[in-house]
Amino acid sequence: MDLVKVSVKTSHEAVDAVSNILMEQGATGVQIDDRNDYEVLKREANWDQYELGDSRTDYNLNEAQVSAYFKDKIDVDNVVKKVKNKVGSLNQFGLDPGPNLVSVKSVKDEDWATSWEKYYHPERVTRFLTVVPSWEDYDIKNSDELMVRLDPGMAFGTGTHPTTKLAMQALEMTIRGDEIMLDVGTGSGVLSIAARELGAGTINAYDVDDVAVKSAEKNIALNPGMQEIHVMVNNLLDGINIKADIVVANILAEIIIPLIPQAEKCLNNGGIFITSGIIADKLDEVIATLKKHHFKINQVLTMRDWRAVIAEKVSEEN
């Protein structure tokens, strides 16, 4: 199956918001080409040996390009119109939309799955967790370092996006050992693998997309000691009656909101609900819905324009 690549040339400050807009339209995955980020990496990590393609140098340091990949059956004209309108309105939220130039290109799925590999390298995401591409040799640097091997393929979730980093940080802050966990919208499976590395017990991981489920299964097999992770196709927590200690969901706020009553049903009293993928202007709505469904907000984590919430289920009597 071929894919449609929709690219938006925007400002550096609007990258997260534009990524969110594209994912709202049903993107299979996103790619961010931000020259400012590459310049910082080159200075701080001596990355001069990594060649930047021409497509990454045709905009200045104040601009970036966000590309999204869609299944080829989408109404491209409608998606482009919606994206352009939403990006153009970002100035209402104090963000510079930049040039707001939208382009469309047809891409072979196998090209998408491999073209970004030379830009994806081991990254220490949290204090303990390092995400390592499956094709890279890597030696643990510290005795407390935990390695997550990953080949994300077509699924969204390399461990390097702010929403995934926030979710991994929240898991690191929450897991004490042997918890039953539900991972909703597992994508590449990175959060389930990270949770097992941190000591979680049985994990059930769900995704509505069978491509993501296959990707997660492949990644789980790359990491030892993952036998307690079970992956299956499911729409959110529909029909799931497991009582869990932790529910984690790194998905968009619009999907988190209908998930909240399902998470309330599946969590034990005192259980933790970790939500990430929340753009800043959606945070209040998510928190209000959590409180309505007997969740206490323990902490809000922030990275750029993204938010993650650690909430605790309390009994109705409280």
Automatic annotation (TrEMBL):
Coiled coil: none
Localization: Cytoplasm
UniProt: S-adenosyl-L-methionine binding residues: T164, G185, D207, N250
UniProt enzyme class: transferase
Broad class of where this protein is predominantly found: cytoplasm
InterPro entries for this protein: Ribosomal_L11_MeTrfase_PrmA, Ribosomal_PrmA_MeTrfase, SAM-dependent_MTases_sf
GO biological process: methylation
GO cellular component, one term: ribosome
A Pfam match: PrmA
UniProt KW keywords: Cytoplasm, Methyltransferase, Ribonucleoprotein, Ribosomal protein, S-adenosyl-L-methionine, Transferase
GO molecular function, one term: protein-lysine N-methyltransferase activity
Enzyme Commission number(s): 2.1.1.-
SUPFAM superfamilies (UniProt xref): S-adenosyl-L-methionine-dependent methyltransferases
Catalytic activity annotation: L-lysyl-[protein] + 3 S-adenosyl-L-methionine = N(6),N(6),N(6)-trimethyl-L-lysyl-[protein] + 3 S-adenosyl-L-homocysteine + 3 H(+)
HAMAP family the record matches: Methyltr_PrmA
UniProt function note: Methylates ribosomal protein L11.
Family indicated by similarity: Belongs to the methyltransferase superfamily. PrmA family.
Record protein name field: Ribosomal protein L11 methyltransferase
Annotated organism of origin: Fructilactobacillus fructivorans
Classification of source organism: Bacteria, Bacillati, Bacillota, Bacilli, Lactobacillales
